[in-house]
Amino acid sequence: GIFLGQTLSRFTDASLPFMDSALTSFSIVAQWMQTRKLLETWVVWLSVDVFYVGMFLYKGLYLTAALYTVFLYLAVLGFVEWRRSMERAPSQTQSAVAP
Length: 99
What we know:
By secondary structure, the protein is mainly α. The protein is 84% helix and 0% strand.
């Protein structure tokens, strides 16, 4: 995150280089967690999206903030659905094993 922030600060005209780099770093971590099918990934996505919405509102990028509000909503749905599927999974496994 810090290296990316320094790079953005030095070589671009990014207005919030360190916030942007931190959110990008957390997004990469969330994506990695998602490939591992960890329920907690949705908590990271929710947090990242909340901060992205705030950042884009601060910068006056209202359509992008609206898009990230949609992503925030989708992250809530993803969390709820993954949690439901994880709760169902043990009972499905047991019924398949039982005679």
